[in-house]
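ugh ok fine here u go
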Amino acid sequence: MLIEFSVSNFRSFREKQTFSLVAAPRLKKKNCVFKVDVKGEKLPDLLKVAAIYGPNASGKSNLLDAMGVATMIARLSPTSEARKLPVSPFRFDANLSDQPSRFEYHFVQDRQRYQFELAVTQTRIVEERLIGYPSGVESLLYERIHGTSGETYKMGTALEGGDDLHNAWKNLTGPQVLFISQAVANSNENLMQLRAPFAWLKSGFFVMGDDMTSMAQELASLGTRHPIIGEMVAKYLQEIDVPVTNIVFENLSSANNLSKMGMLLSSTLSLADIESSEQTAKKNKTTLTHATALGEADFDFSEESKGTKNLMGFFVPWSSLPNDIVIVDELDSSLHPKIVAALIKKHLLAENVGQLIFTTHDTHLMDTKLLRRDQFWLTERDANGATRLRSIHDFDGRESEDIEKRYYEGRYRALPILRQG
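structure:
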């Protein structure tokens, strides 16, 4: 689970900005939070949902992309060929152009708290640091720093494996590969210490853009091999008032070699997985049966509205929400506000510990009957073009106040400035 995330010198982010899912004390709506089971320490409750608002080009999407950087790098395969790492510095400050982008993750995996710090340029990893908190006590596992004299490492006294193996891991780690990736890949089954934090870095986030059609196509590819998926998706659509009684996925070619259902439901699909399945999806046919008072009729997937297509695409991360962190850019894209609110409410009432983070322009969700003040976040750009990130809970106000009204009144700022004339 994500506790807190910080970013600096990445796209529109200049100075360090911190996004927190730690629940504020003394606020009500206990269904909006969950308790964290951590060995040897008591952590504050965490939020199940966070909504991010702000004008266009204020940095909302950049924040979500920043969260996914460690995952993208963790999934990279070692190669001798040069490639660009997925970062870009803040461009309005010349002093930062040759400085690394920095990311810091505080998270819980397998009942232990971790802190992972990463500094990256487009050409190499500059810093990498992992700290564990067994029984709540800070313990450095390893630290890697690239300086003018080359790369230096500091291994924590608690890091398993021994000096010889640690040196082997160092020698195998290239400039564009995480040390933890090589350590896990080159450990026997008895060395487990780094596996849990690496699993979180590699698969803990499920990041989606505002167009979920490609994910719906992936769903079609999987549905041809697992007919039960059609039943599951139809039931999911019925629960949010889409009158689909049945969905049939047909494979029009024998070239379907996908076997990713387990990966789908555990949110470990990579971009390469999705791209390969999209090619196969073109050979598939999806038929949806709609029911009305006059009877039923079949429709091809291509005839469906963008909203229905996006809802089908959202089923993929929705299936992962019981255990993972789902991040969606513009969750309200082509979806009715009441459907978005219903999905959020359904997640809040579910007995799971998944976390949903999304950007939106739908201010109808600024309803304190649904979410708490500490679940609303705002982005805005300052005079230097840099994104500032703040929680509405940072502003003075009552728990039951009309947040939407105060937002439009400019009490929280983060509104577009429209020029007249």
